[in-house]
């Protein structure tokens, strides 16, 4: 029954009906705490789900409260070196990132990355996602060279695993192009933005906001 509540909560969360999502996640949590206890991995999963919704709602302190509850269980029951633990670190990093607490975000993103590199390897998409998250934090901090270092690592994995015609790959091309534009390296900026645009037009269509934004930036650079 708890699993059903949890799945219903997940669907409401996908629909951005966050109050309903929380309603069902808390129903699942109540059952799991009573039947499994507050130290069970399934209970941790409920804490994690609730934390994700609070993060979406911008209620960051509540989000951190539940993510740290989940992390405590995961570290005790599963250990500190497994991908599930890395996921908890990433979730905490994301909340700090959204709060603009970039140093704390990097602390947890790097904890996640260490596990992923050791367990999953440097060619796994989860590892790529961590590289990307770290690169974006450095971008927010204005540390463009470090941002490029990690975003290019993420892009290499995405190209190898997903191919060069996938939306996530396009996003990487786009942000790398944006950074080169910030650095006034316009030829490199155009190189990556044109790659992003080709994917966006083929996959998202010419009327998609991402496609339009990329096209406008290319036109702006060409006009310089």
Provide a descriptive summary of the structure in words:
This protein is mostly helical. Helices cover 81% and strands 0% of the residues. The protein is built from 11 helices and no strands. It starts with a helix and ends with a helix. The model has no long low-confidence stretch (mean pLDDT 95).
- What is the gyration radius calculated from CA atoms? 19 Å
Biggest sheet statistics? none
**SS content category:** mainly alpha
Tell me the number of helical segments per DSSP (H or I, 4 or more residues long): 11
3D shape = elongated
Order of helices and strands: HHHHHHHHHHH
In percent, how helical is the residue content? over 70%
Descriptors:
single chain; 224 residues; mainly alpha; 11 helices; elongated
Summarize the structure.
The chain is mainly α and 224 residues long. Helices cover 81% and strands 0% of the residues.
What is the element layout, followed by pairings?
Layout: H1 2-14, H2 18-35, H3 41-56, H4 60-77, H5 83-99, H6 102-119, H7 125-140, H8 144-161, H9 167-182, H10 186-203, H11 209-222
Helix pairs in contact: 1-2, 2-3, 3-4, 3-5, 4-5, 5-6, 6-7, 7-8, 8-9, 9-10, 10-11
């Amino acid at each position: 029954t708890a699993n059903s509540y949890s799945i219903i909560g997940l669907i409401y969360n996908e629909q951005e009906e966050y109050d309903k999502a929380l309603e069902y996640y808390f129903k699942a949590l109540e059952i799991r705490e009573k039947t499994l206890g507050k130290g069970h991995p399934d209970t941790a999963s409920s804490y994690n789900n609730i934390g994700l919704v609070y993060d979406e709602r911008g209620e960051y302190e509540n989000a951190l409260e539940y993510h740290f509850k989940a992390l405590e269980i995961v570290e005790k029951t599963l250990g500190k070196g497994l991908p599930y633990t890395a996921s908890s670190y990433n979730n905490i990093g994301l909340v700090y990132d959204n709060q603009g607490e970039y140093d704390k975000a990097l602390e947890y993103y790097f904890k996640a990355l260490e596990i992923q590199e050791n367990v999953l390897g440097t060619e796994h998409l989860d590892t790529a996602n961590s590289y990307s998250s770290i690169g974006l934090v450095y971008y927010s901090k204005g540390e463009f060279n470090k941002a490029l270092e990690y975003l290019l690592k993420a892009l290499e994995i995405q190209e190898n695993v997903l191919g060069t015609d996938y939306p996530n790959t396009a996003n990487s091309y786009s942000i790398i192009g944006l950074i080169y534009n910030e650095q006034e390296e316009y030829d490199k900026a155009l190189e990556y933005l044109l790659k992003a645009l080709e994917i966006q037009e083929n996959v998202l269509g010419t009327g998609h906001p991402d496609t339009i934004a990329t096209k406008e930036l290319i036109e702006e650079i060409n006009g310089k």
